[in-house]
Amino acid sequence: MSAVSPTSPLEILQPGVGPIPGDHYVPATPATVMWGRLPCAADAAVLEVASGESVTFDTVSHEGILDDQGKDPLAYFFGHGVPADHVLADAIEIAASVARDPFADGPHVVVGPVRVRGARPGDLLKITVEALAPRVPYGVVSNRHGKGALVGELPRGEHNVSVFAAVAERDGILHGTLPVVEGGEPIVAFPLAPFLGTMGVAVAGDERPHSVPPGAHGGNIDVNLLVEGTTLFLPVQVEGALAYVGDPHFAQGDGEVALTALEASLRATLRFEVIPADAARAAFGEVTGPLVRTPEYLVPTGMDPDLDAAMRACVRASLALIEGRWGMAEHLAYAYLSAATDFDISQVVDIVSGVHARIREADFAGVPAVEPLALASGAVAPPSEAVPSHDEGDVA
Predict the structure, then answer these.
(1) pLDDT in tens, 185-237
(2) What pLDDT is stored for residue 7 in this prediction?
(3) Which residues contact 26 (CB under 8 A, 6 or more apart)?
(4) DSSP secondary structure code for residue 146 in this structure
(5) I need a labelling partner for 156 at 20 to 30 A (CA). Which of 31, 214, 271, 312 fits?
(6) Which of 42-56, 141-155, 293-307, 329-343 has the lowest mean pLDDT?
(7) In whole numbers, what is the pLDDT of the chain averaged over residues?
(8) Do 113 and 244 touch, CB atoms closer than 8 A?
């Protein structure tokens, strides 16, 4: 048994407890979450904010509350040595009272949606990840039948496999820990790098999408670069964007091959800004899917059920971004990508596979470009132009 120490390296962030740095707070309650589905245009917002405001969300991991784990997080985690007061009250409430069809719905708990005033179809919603605080000192990695990179091969036997991982502090850094053999001491350690696997905007129409496959709306994109200090741009699909978050991770390798990452609950503070359509085009060209920005890279994405097709889609998105932002001719941009850009597999386990490219912005420091100008708080009409910027330290 991999027990959690009663003297945890982390404060247990029960609902409303501990720092809440955002302008607004959305707890995870039966009234503010969906389990297994994503918001659509027909859904009512749980909160409305102005462009430029921040929101702190309590997110809840699906691991430990699913049917194959007993749908009783108190009993499940107690069985792994977790004290009762270290089990999140909102996870217990959601497992007991939120409806989910395990045969038709996805596993993820998503919080929202949040309406962002002024957001219109064609705009980009800019989501800046300001803070990600682990709520508990443990998580779970699962491999379920029919899913993962080795379908039909792993797990062995008839049952799903869920691996408990306690968090420990080593040399001042939080690590996930695992044993070498089942029941052994947790002597294998890897550093945490928390991020939200799911950030998205509502789709048009009145049908809620399944929570697993990602798409142009974002959703379960599982790009592990989206740690604190990074930004996600999403094409707005409906008035007000109707943004949502979920699927919190403590750590994930590119590929996420077993099916899940180290899944664990986070308190996430995000800032929402509207980039009007004309400013978005001036800065990035036509953006038709999720676009990530880190302090070093612009990261376009490609998605498709076929991994080869996802790769091709990512290359096309990369070419369009380089041409739209820096005006580089297509054949030269293609050569640049081949010589200088890494294409990483985001994940291969979410029905729709994902690939993302890491384009170093410093490589284009000598090329004029514009930065996307956000809609001012309280504004009702988009500005007509973006403003030039050559500040390499601006993360957007």
Answers:
(1) 999 999 999 999 999 999 999 999 999 999 999 999 999 999 999 999 999 99
(2) 57
(3) 32, 46, 47, 55, 56, 57, 58, 111, 112, 114
(4) T
(5) 214
(6) 141-155
(7) 94
(8) yes
User: Whole-angstrom Cα distance, residue 327 to residue 336?
Assistant: 13
Query: Please, are residues 374 and 275 in contact by the beta-carbon 8 Å criterion?
Result: yes
Q: Give me the torsion for CA of 146, 149, 152, 158, rounded to 10°.
A: -60
| pLDDT tens, residue by residue, 347-368 | 999 999 999 999 999 999 999 9
∠ CA 142-28-127, nearest 5°, is: 85
Token pair listed for 387:
């403003």
Query: Is residue 60 classed as helix, strand or coil in its secondary structure?
Result: coil
Helix axes 307-326 and 330-340, enclosed angle (nearest 10) = 120
The contacts of residue 84 (CB under 8 Å, 6+ apart) are 74, 78
Helix axes 307-326, 277-284, angle to 10 degrees: 100
- pLDDT range class, residue 9, cuts 50, 70, 90: confident
Are 342 and 358 within 8 A, CB to CB? yes
pLDDT digits (tens, 9 = 90+) for 86-98: 999 999 999 999 9
Residue 90 identity? D
Q: Report in angstroms the alpha-carbon separations of 377 from 53, 177, 216, 275.
A: 8, 44, 26, 12
What are the residues whose beta carbons fall under 8 Å from the beta carbon of 184, sequence distance 6 or more? none
* Bridge partner list, 344: 356
